[in-house]
Amino acid sequence: MKRREFIKKAGVGAVAAGAVFAGAPAVHASKTIEITMVTTWPRDFPGLGTGAQRFAKRLSDMTNGRMKVNYYAAGERVKAFDSFDEVASGNAQMYHAADYYWKGKHPSWAYMTAVPFGLTVNEMNAWIRFGGGQELWDELGAEFGIKGLLCGNTGSQMGGWFRKEINSPEDLKGLKMRIPGLGGDVMAKLGASTVSIPGGQIYENLISGAIDATEWVGPWNDAFMKFYEAAKYYYYPGMHEPGSALGLGMNKKWWDGLSASDQLLIEAAASMENDVMMAEFNSRNGESLRKLVTEQGVLLREFNDDIYDAFGEAAAEVFEETRKHSPLAAKIHDSFEKARKEVGGWMKISDQAYLNQRNRVLKL
Predict the structure, then answer these.
(1) How much is the pTM?
(2) In the chain, alpha helices (H)
(3) Handedness of CA 134, 139, 141, 145 (dihedral sign)
(4) SS3 for 21?
């Protein structure tokens, strides 16, 4: 065969092969994947709700609508705290929530959001992504038919809103407080009467006097909720949620049936929201706190050392009880504790040490 003739035939073959190769993804791309997503947040709620909505839109946009996410806020399809069962059963494919809401099903779900004296956002990301946290999350989720991913974080939360000053651990006794997760268990150890209710119901319970105090998130979200109309004392720092991760929970059978590329697309969209939401909270909280104090007359207070020491003693009891729940609970706690020691030890001489000196020099 002459050289020119060989090249001509080879070129035609390459074009044909390229057409077949290019055509294959086109067939796959034309198949729309309908996704029902439920959440524990009110529609358009700043940060939490808008972050979940942003994720849903981003995933649809990233796939040019091939993954069509039908988003439902709390109460639009199911009640907020029914989101887990809706996804585990397969009636919906995704939820967006704080996984500590499910601690009644297994206490280890709390670790996937935040626990008392737990991990900051940077520590949480390190544990989940590189410290074995994701693998343990997968092991826990598999027992309930759920696959979880990080999909947002609110950062270090405030200690809560109180109708009266809290000057000692004794002031917590008999207090009716909305606080979920293991943080609620800590408060109960100190004599508080705790409840876990969805965010959309907190204001009405606080304003009516059904509860005496509440934790929620931080200045940006709390100002939107107008808690200052019912309680003026705003305490910090919150021991219960130092870096609250929001979870994207998916029906595991549905997740396992996706192609590897579609799983990566979902992971990418969730990972982006994990970063964007934290940036938004950090951007909004400072100004919101200033306005709460200067315009709404909120009285900013810091928990004293006696109260924090009591928190620590109660938290140690709660952790020991949690470890005894099951071998998996013990394994998750021990992994978390290892991350808190090792990653936290590094943060102490890196971020924390720098911030202490920066703020001292600049008098911030």
Answers:
(1) 0.90
(2) 3-29, 48-62, 83-88, 121-130, 133-142, 181-189, 202-208, 219-225, 252-256, 260-295, 305-323, 327-349, 351-362
(3) positive
(4) helix
- Cβ count within 10 A of residue 330: 14
∠ CA(280), CA(63), CA(267), 5° rounding?
55
Task: Map out the domains of the chain with their CATH numbers.
Answer: 32-152+243-282 (3.40.190.170), 160-242+297-324+333-362 (3.40.190.10)
Phi, psi at 48, each rounded to 5°: -75, -55
The DSSP call for residue 348 is H
* Cβ-contact 231, 298 below 8 angstroms: no
Give, in order, the Cα–Cα distances in Å from 316 to each of 96, 333, 337, 353: 30, 12, 12, 26
pLDDT in tens, the chain (364 residues): 444 454 444 444 444 444 333 333 433 446 899 999 999 999 999 999 999 999 999 999 999 999 999 999 999 999 999 999 999 999 999 999 999 999 999 999 999 999 999 999 999 999 999 999 999 999 999 999 999 999 999 999 999 999 999 999 999 999 999 999 999 999 999 999 999 999 999 999 999 999 999 999 999 999 999 999 999 999 999 999 999 999 999 999 999 999 999 999 999 999 999 999 999 999 999 999 999 999 999 999 999 999 999 999 999 999 999 999 999 999 999 999 999 999 999 999 999 999 999 999 999 9
Go through 219-230 and write b for each residue having 16 or more CB atoms within 10 A of its CB, e for each that does not.
Answer: bbbbbebebbeb
Do the Cβ atoms of 88 and 79 come closer than 8 Å?
no
